[in-house]
Amino acid sequence: LDSMVSSNRPTRAEVADVANAILDGTDAVMLSQETAIGQYPVDAIEMMAAIAAQVEPELTYEYWNESRVRRDERDPAYTIAHSACRAARELELDALVIPTLSGRSVRLVSAHRPIVPIIALSPGKETVRRCGLMWGVRAASMRHHRVTEDLIADAAHRVVELGWLPAGARVGITAGLPSGVPGSTSLFQVQTLPEPDARWSSAPSSPPPSRDQ
Known about the structure:
2 domains, 8 helices, 5-stranded mixed beta sheet, elongated, Pyruvate Kinase, Chain: A, domain 1, alpha/beta
């Protein structure tokens, strides 16, 4: 929206460029000099948000999965992501919760444009920041776990602790077997979020892997 550096309205071509970028599957759109040195920074932000809000309803789950998603049925992580998005729609879940080390499973789910929010949880700061830019994703930190059952339980409690969903909400949670191994996503569970429990907290109990996988 370069023209909004000095004007409170964008050109038609600029609006079309932003809209087409969203239709092509861009996860995030960014402003630079419009807000850094522009005379109408708030107007530019509101305009960008308005364009996205107008275009995104056109990206239906059916449209996206029929024409845009790159399929790889031989990849277990892809199959879990595809199934999770379908389950979210058919079971009317409140969200998909994805504990992750690398962020890959979050990216696969986000690519399907599910109809529910995606909550990414990771012990890696870089992964949290990266996932926060993906379509439909809210990201936060969580403890690292080496036992899958602990990972799933802590993820459910963490969502309630963050205040993003209330206890009693129904969510789908993906996980890997064995836990703590990047690329091992092979499990999907539907759970009802529990009441807050003091046994679980966001404080790290064991260190994550040495590199942010």
